[in-house]
Amino acid sequence: MNTIFQLFLIGLLLTLSKLEACNYSSKGSVQFPGNFSFGVSTSAYQIEGAWNEDGKGVSIWDDFTHKNPELVRDGSNGDIAINSYHRFDDDLEILNDLKVDHYRFSISWTRIFPNGEVKYRNQAGIDYYNKIIDKLLASGIKPLVTLFHFDLPMEIQKMGGFISPLSIEYFVQYATEIFKLYGDRVKHWITFNEPWFMCKLAYGDGIYPPLINASGIADYLCIDSILKAHGATYRRFKSHFKKQKGQIGISLNSPYFIIADSSDKDILERAMQFNLGYLAHPIFSKAGGYPEVMVKDIAKNSFLEGRIMSRLPSLEGEWKDIVRGSADFLGLNYYSSAYIRYASQPVGRNPSFERDTNYETYNKFPSQSSQSCDPAGLEGLLKWIRKEYNNVPVIITENGYRDMGELRDDNRTSYLKTHLQAVLNALNDGCNVVGYTHWSLVDNFEWLFGYTIKYGLYGVNMTSPKRDRVAKKSAKFYKKVIRSRILQMEDV
Ligand code: NOJ
User: Fold this and answer.
1) What does pLDDT average to over the chain?
2) Which range of residues forms the domain containing residue 284?
3) Within a domain: residue 492?
4) Which atom of ligand 1 is nearest to the CA of 194?
């Protein structure tokens, strides 16, 4: 097994065994603004199932899980998942139970365009999402639709996936058709989910499909294609679909950072630019392009390695302008913070993102795991975004807690409460946060972990063919907050 993945698993297991309820104090109002939007999130491959039904084509996750079951912890896959393709009404029932303002779900590209290319459309797939959107709207729930959440069509992968510039045009064509199909009713779009996380694992570390193991090179190329595909889609949307009056953004993942050694003052800024800034700077900063520190240091490292050009592609000229300013809001996926310090010796593989960052992550208090539940990190991140990107509107598109599936999920409940408190603190401090979306509505297929770890507010009976949903303690808590728009300390 790949060493990075082994370390990742060990880290996760340590975290799971030690995480305790976290505390966080209130600063100011406990009331959320009336127009603040509360929601929950899922993604197609993780919940739909029906992987080959009604004309759906094969995605890289179908292909990967079928060919390499040993790489998924429990050997499972999303063939049936929690059967949302057939049981959407059950999902709707729990969405209505929570009374969320919005529901974030993703479209499976191959359900609508089985070969990836738009020349052949699958009506059953089109109907499925029409049904979801119409039923949500009839329940007063706004759809927040992600166009791409990891499940690339296999046929597009065969043409090089995201390291090929062809992917840019394929994505824009796909998005254009989706806007035509659903843009009369969907007013909030997300182009890509967590591009950095996906590109790194899929093209750098080689542990997500398409298993390309070229760290510090192919992962950077993947991001470059995705940024361009995002920017070009935004321009297409604003020029051809203006009348739809929709908003479009991107979901970026980032931890926040805890710096223990005060002599490392500038490391926070460096880490932020290498993480959130990597994709946010090209889109949301005034200057555009990749963060200066990345351009400079990756070029320097590349030349020291004897290369004749930087491993970081150049994002200049016309593309820089297409990408700069290409979002109406920033979607933020935040889970936890990391302790970092400057590396005393080179870290990671050569070359790799880790080596380029020149810092290392570590666990300061091995007997505790406070960084795994760090609401202060969310508050810090929101304030950093306010300062760095001119207080752009932020929708938290993911935030959640993993456990083994307890229905009395006290840890998740306290994680949710303290992170909502962090959002309130940021709001009270003037941050432009317009929505919060919990990951996830319901337990589902967690990628390389299969069904062994859980993130849902609702559990699922995986042995029943209907995959019955059952409310956890955290769902009851969230429901109360949504109804009252007030965060009560004693509710946890
Ligand atoms: C990131 C991803 O967007 C989502 O698919 C995943 O399940 C959660 N975070 C939890 O790991």
Assistant:
1) 93
2) 2-483
3) no
4) 3
